Amino acid sequence: MASTRTKPTVTCLMECSIDGRLDEGRWSTMFDKDGEGNPDVYYETRNKIDADAELLGRVTVQKHYAKNIFKAVSHTMPLNLTPFKGIRSREKMLAVFDSTGMLAYDSNEIDDRTVIAVLGTKLVSEEYLCFLREKEISYTFAGDDGRDLNAALGSLYNDFGLKHVLLAGGGLLNGSFLKAGLIDELDVVIYPGLDGLNGINSIFEYKGEKNEKPCQGQSLELLDVQKCRAGVVLLKYAFHKESN
Question: Do 13 and 71 share a domain, yes or no?
Answer without folding.
Answer: no
